[in-house]
Amino acid sequence: MNKPRLIFIFLSIYIVAAFSWWGFEHFRNSNTINNLEVANSNLRAEADEILCYKASSDIFEEIRQDNFLDTIQAQNYFKANYKTLELVFVDTINPFNGYLIRPKQDAYIKLQTEIEAANKKLNRKKWMYAGEGLVMIALLIWGILWVYKVFEKSIELNKQQNNFLLAVTHELKTPIASIKLYLETLFKRDLDKEQQSVILKNSINDTNRLRDLVDNLLLSAQLETKHYEPLMAKVNLSELVNRIVDTYAKPRNLETRLIKNIEQEVYITGDGFALESIIVNLLSNAEKYSDQNITILLKSDNKQVVLSIIDLGIGIAEADKQRLFDKFYRVGAEQTRKSKGTGLGLFIVRKLVHLHDATITVKNNHPIGTNFEVSFNV
Fold it and tell me: Would you call 325 exposed, middle or buried from its count of C-beta atoms within 10 A (0-12, 13-18, 19+)?
């Protein structure tokens, strides 16, 4: 596991732990506040009890000194001095021998209401914190996973770009070195016409290879920035496929390996340059991974035109099919891969196919190989 990934995992664990601790502390503080509110209510109740004791002593002393002529005078005195308490005479015959001092009834109700309100408030807060906490944790986890996915994608893209640089460097250096060697041979040696012809032919092939690579790089950049404007027109796809296959096969000595099964007079609306690029890149891909026959199949019906490039090569694993059309993606490590390429061909194919409102699918060929199938709507 590399260093950036370890740092990301550590930070993610720290964020989740810090959030959990903050939630726990918030919950605990709510409990503390509620306990303080209940304790305050209880203290007021205790204060009322103490006040009752003091009022009892006071009234007893006043009665003992015969300061009250009747119960009405006693009630008025009590109300003036003890506003939160009430004086109740329980002995109707001799009231001053049987009386009760207690907090007013509404004070009991108010106190009980405050305690119940505090408990209800705490319960509401608990449910609120639990709900908010779950939502925030879910969003936090989702965010971490999303960032991790982007992080992994960035690492993978960086790896693919490095592979691309290695591949394109190789693809550029090889034909350049070959052309330089051919030119030095022509310059230093006296060769007959046949030898000169072979060298010139090979040099032209290498030049065409460089041209194709540069064209793919430019086309890829145009498609990526959406600066490519297709020129749509009615195209005889049968003639186009026949011409491109013959042009592709001749310099590569593939005439015997490319098997054409092309329905005649098949027309679609498309961009001739884009269609040529699609066919050439699919042929190039099939040639890289197969040393046996490659079948080019073109057929149509009332709804669709289907172009298939079918090889008998090593095939493609299911896991790789999901990313086969990604930019720079190639199966295996660039340093150990033997096949030529930059990882742009199938990316370009998919982009150009989509510009034609068409679809491309990858199927297994039986018993071995791969079938790239492009379907155009008629």
Answer: middle
- Are the beta carbons of 278 and 349 closer than 8 angstroms? yes
How many CB atoms are located within 10 Å of the residue 267 CB?
14
Q: How many C-beta atoms surround the C-beta of residue 108 within 10 A?
A: 13
Which residue in the block uniquely carries the two structure tokens 């012809």? 197
Within 13 A of 370's CA, how many CA atoms are on the CB side?
22
The residue type at 75: Q
If one counts every other C-beta atom within 10 angstroms of the C-beta of residue 271, the result is 19
Residue 235 bridge partners (DSSP): 268
What is the per-residue pLDDT across 84-106, written as a single tens digit (0 to 9) for each? Answer: 777 777 776 777 777 777 776 66
Tokens, residue 183: 């030119």
Distances (CA, A) of 204 to 120, 197, 199, 209, 236: 88, 10, 9, 8, 29
Sort 370 into a burial class: Cβ within 10 Å, 0-12 / 13-18 / 19+: buried
Q: Are strands 294-300 and 304-311 parallel, antiparallel or unpaired?
A: antiparallel
Give me the DSSP letters along 128-166: HHHHHHHHHHHHHHHHHHHHHHHHHHHHHHHHHHHHHHH
Question: What are the b/e assignments for 130-162, b being 16+ CB within 10 Å?
Answer: eeebeeeeeeeeeebeeeeeeeeeeeeeeebee
CA distance 187 to 200: 12
Phi, psi of 268 (to 5 degrees): -140, 170
Q: How do residues 177-224 score in pLDDT, each as one tens digit?
A: 888 888 888 888 777 888 888 888 888 878 887 887 788 778 878 888
Tokens 């920035």 — which residue?
225
Is residue 237 within 8 A of residue 299, CB to CB? The reply is no
CA distances from 89 to 71, 98, 99, 249 (A): 8, 6, 4, 121
**Do residues 292 and 360 lie in contact, with contact meaning Cβ atoms separated by under 8 Å?**
no
Work out the pLDDT band at 163, boundaries 50, 70, 90.
low
Nearest to 246 by CA among 265, 264, 225, 260: 260
Mean pLDDT of the chain: 78
Contact indicator for 169, 177 with CB cutoff of 8 Å: no
